[in-house]
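Quick start: read one record
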Amino acid sequence: MSRHKHDTAVPQSSRRSGAVESRRNLGSLLRAYFHNHQKIAAESFARIVAEPLQSVMTMLVVAIALSLPAMLYVGVSSLQQLSGSWDSSAQMTLFLQKGAKDQAIKSLITRLESNDELAEIQYISPVQALDALQDSGGFGGALTLLDENPLPPVLLVVPIADIEGDVPRVELLVRTLSSQPLVDEVQLDMKWLQRMQQILDIGRQITLLLGGALSLGVLLVVGNTIRLAIENRRDEILVVKLVGGTNSFVRRPFLYIGLWYGACGGVIAGLGVLLAQFWLGATVLRLAALYQSDFTLKGLGFDGVLVLVALGGALGLVGAALAVGRHIAQLEP
């Protein structure tokens, strides 16, 4: 009986030790894998540093390709402030019928106050409008010669902030207000906003097209650089393959080189955009002050720089992968 228990205990211990050994082997493989990647990444960066002229030229090409659409994006985003801060133009002027009774005007104001899309309503009587015209027009003496006040009563209406940038909703509101009794005309200059939005849409499309075209250029430049690097290390690659190196092992250093080219180019592009913003910022502020505006260039920010670095690294990696995948397979000992 005890012998049977002893016989069954040995295999269980062996299985446990085998499972522990398997986990140890898996952990060792993972550590070796990441250590190999870390070592190859450092060696690839050292190779780039060892060839400064070629490396800097490639990085500058990547930086220019990334910075141009980034600067255009910053400009379009900055202009978006103009269409998003049109407080004075959002104000609608409702010209009422001349001779309208005060009670009828109060009833109209009450109806308009129940409209959820209106934030503010201000009534200007014909007398108030005439006084304001005399004070600001510079021809108050001529107005005193008039037999009667020619100005109609006016309502100044401001829509809520949620619809200020929504042209279709504002146009619908204008038509609604025009249909109200006592309202002769609703004045709102929407043309400039429509033109601005069309210009911004065109700017966004140009940014995408330019970014796509220059991204393709980055792929070609990085791919051609990697192809030259493969040719320069042709003998080394053949020896590695001869002793059993796989295509994946041979490709790895070149993929890291492409990644370094793209990421460093993204860093240069981000710094270049920030420098351009700093250089133009003071000039833009002086120009805005002449027009009594608070317009400023919208900054790229730290997040924007990170996006450029990530995008540059991704383009460099893809460009290297496209070049390496075809050329490494063709090199056989």
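Residues 1-10 have pLDDT under 50 and may be disordered.
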